[in-house]
Amino acid sequence: MDRNNYKDKWNDRVSSLKSGAIAVDGSTDEETLLSNGQWTSDQMQIALNINKDDTVLEMGCGVARIGKLLAPHCKKWIGVDISENMLNVAKERLGDLDNVEFHDLKRNDLACIPDNSVDKAYSVAVFCHLDKEDLFNYLREMYRILKPGGTIYVETWNLAHDIGWKRWQYEADNWFIADHSQRKDVTRNQFCSPDEFDLYVKKSGFDILGSYSDSVWNQIVAVKEATDDSKQSHIDYLVKHESDFVYSATFSKLFEYAMDVTYNAIHPKEMMTYIDSLGDVPVAVLYRRFLIGLWGNNVELWGDVEQ
Ligand SMILES: C[S@@+](CC[C@H](N)C(=O)[O-])C[C@H]1O[C@@H](n2cnc3c(N)ncnc32)[C@H](O)[C@@H]1O
């Protein structure tokens, strides 16, 4: 049977916490996973104004990198994923929380979740691994399961940003030398221009409240069936808080360094020098931890870690 499907491909990457953490965001240990998870959990909490009355769903939750930090702030946190192996690690990591629920998806839909049952939903680092038809169908499913007035946060790679384009070109270059008798990996990285991503969100029925594309990511916050007054108050809220969840230019630059290190285009020392130049700002602390882990895992290639 052809194993080039989302479920088999993602299951094959995960057999333990260690391999699961690497598969979700390149974290090489639990400490890094927690600090990255805190960063993204804060972003979700602010972008969606999440509070203790909310039932919140994450589409493609992986090992619950985000859920572990976010669940204590909501009434119920629901993690769904196509990979049972990811969910097994997630369940272990969240074993001490009693307001969480998991569903392993059989197909690319949210059939396990009733209509109009969720207050807020988000998906991070998943749409960038989906074919466009599946991306659109998941958006339609998110619309169906949300209560009227409910909000979503979604993101994907931004093809129209210089660093997004560079990331995509790595994909094109890889494909240029790949085995063309094989279909492309269904889980490969995929990209949208901001207009295209906006279109999928709008055509799923949502009203866009904020769309941000000055970084390597397109980020969108959108609402289902809101009155004009309620929409305006959401927009006012986002304007006030966007600098706390929208990726900064420095975040994009650090991402570019990390990408070049990963593809072995530069030595990690070069990235460390840039990180040092930023001082102890939170984004530098975040990437320093990530880089030390990545470098430490590849000392044969790059030599001992220099901090
Ligand atoms: C890069 S990981 C991100 C995990 C998590 N959102 C995070 O940010 O830590 C991508 C996740 O999406 C899940 N996924 C991939 N394709 C999927 C699909 N078609 N339906 C549902 N989940 C999917 C994978 O199993 C994996 O857990």
Describe this structure in words.
This protein is globular. The protein is 47% helix and 16% strand. It has 2 domains: 6-247, Rossmann fold, CATH 3.40.50.150; 254-302. Strands 1, 2, 3, 4, 5, 6, 7 and 8 form an 8-stranded mixed beta sheet that branches. By secondary structure, it is of the alpha/beta class. Residues 6, 10, 24-25, 60-62, 65-66, 81-83, 86, 105, 108, 124-126, 129-130, 134 line the site of S-adenosylmethionine (SAM).
Work out the radius of gyration: 19 Å
Question: Uncertain spans, ≥5 residues at pLDDT below 50?
Answer: none
- How far apart are the first and last residues' alpha carbons, in Å? 47 Å
Bound molecules: S-adenosylmethionine
How would you sum up the global shape?
globular
Record field, number of beta strands = 8
Helical percent range? 40-55%
What is the H/E order? Answer: HHHEHEHEEHEHEHEEHHHHH
Q: CATH superfamily of the largest domain, called what?
A: Vaccinia Virus protein VP39
Can you tell me the number of structural domains?
Answer: 2
CATH architecture classification of the largest domain: 3-Layer(aba) Sandwich
How confident overall, as mean pLDDT?
97
CATH class of the largest domain: Alpha Beta
CATH topology of the largest domain: Rossmann fold
Instruction: Assign the structural class, choosing from mainly alpha, mainly beta, alpha/beta, alpha+beta, or little secondary structure.
Output: alpha/beta
Report the total helices. 13
Beta-strand residue fraction:
15-25%
**Largest sheet, described in full?**
8 strands, mixed
